[in-house]
Amino acid sequence: MIPKIDPTSTSSWKLLQTHYKNVQAIHMSHLFEEDPNRFQRFSVQQGHILLDYSKNRVTEETMSLLRSLAEECKVAEGIKAMFAGEPINETENRAVLHTALRNRLGAPVYAGETNVMPAVQDVLTQMKQFSNRVISGEHKGFTGRSVETVVNIGIGGSDLGPHMVVEALRHYANRLDVRFVSNVDATHLVEQCKGMDPETTLFIVASKTFTTQETMTNAHSARAWLVEHLGDEDCISKHMVALSTNRTAVEIFGIDPANMFTFWDWVGGRYSLWSAIGLSIMLAVGPAHFEALLEGAFEEDQRVKADGVESMSGILALLSVWYGNFFGVDTHAVLPYDQYLHRFPAFLQQADMESNGKSVDRNGKRTAYETGSIIWGEPGTNGQHAFYQLIHQGTKLIPCDFVAFSQSLNPVGDHHEKLLANCFAQGMALMQGKDEYTVRKELEAAGKEGAQIKALLPYKIFEGNKPSTTLLIDRLTPHSLGRLIAIYEHKILIEGLLLNVYSFDQWGVELGKDLAKPVLENIQGDSGSDALDSSTMGLIQAMLNFNERTS
Q1: What CATH architecture does domain 116-285 belong to?
Q2: Which residues belong to the active site?
């Protein structure tokens, strides 16, 4: 089991509180002036990835105290427990072994008494064989035509991870058109199905229990669409596959059990893209690229096992705790300067917020400190023309992670140089700011005088001292993407260990799902109103009234 230490009870926490009072007013620009080697001291390069955290409001003493906090919270023991297959997801009595899915050494990994690796390898082999048949055209649909379009139907971790990776690796895509449907709003399914030929379409239904409301609603509609156009229910066995553990439900649905790809309860949904849930990825880019993705993640797993909080993941976690609990920061922006990563912030929203968005600690007590951050972001340079104004001159302190690649996969003119120039400049601007003296000189040089300068001056001052971290990677490849994702996965683990919360359950998503059932019954006229409040009943009645007027 993992340690259950309230971080606020440690001596390191108390020392950090005092330290914060001493350093909170220090401007980062002064730290750079005082230390010409600050970049070297506060950056880490491992292989083809560089983490620059020098533009953060930290000193060597800050980092030393944060490392001491991790030691007092026994973070190293928690990391070891996860990799060892201990049931660290205690509220569900489950191991957390998504790392076993990318264990490229094949060495035994145990969940309880069971070595999970033979089963992992069997499913990976099944995925590769099926993907090769589909990609090559050997797998035929009901009318004898090859698959051209693949539609992944899932939600949450069964959508966000695979969707993000397929978009991120679009440069490596093969002939298949891979699409995603998640929302129970029929518009999502209808729009995604436009232009598709049922004779050449393959649906992937991704649901561990095969009971997820949104997924199964979309799956049944997709099934009806196929049967309507192909005229025979037997077509389902050729045009739908399942990612599930519920064989009985899959068979009843009409999917051939040979085309059911299983995974296990020690695979959390938001960590499942490495499992059978990644079948859409493998179909999109082929087995070799999928395995390179696994290899990249495995490389980072090994670094975290060896380095703990000294790893890139550990540094990111320490910084997050520092800002969230000492500076009172609520949000964290992730800003990829690569269009292929446009779904990366959305993926991290679930990965981070569903993991550490907790208010009860591992001792069953309400936390007296801050836990999960609000994660958000958009690709650069789009975000620069939208919300960067608030980051630069607003009243909120928002740490930023910039993610960029040294080389472009699409070298056209000087696009990439301009992209990286903007990325690096934003970090510099956030750190340095622009003081009154500089603004005044610029206005004078522009021919402004007296009253004009006085009127404009306050609007053109930038406080600076806004923290940012930059992850610079040589090139976006399946391998480097695997490493990048794993860095953030382990950052979430380490931060959860520091904050004494269970990062691998998600009870907070259950209540709304449970209450949707009686609400749906009322909408459909199958239940009384006793269980619902007056507001909810009023909304239902208003909806019914609107429908009557327009029918």
Answers
A1: 3-Layer(aba) Sandwich (3.40)
A2: 354, 385, 513
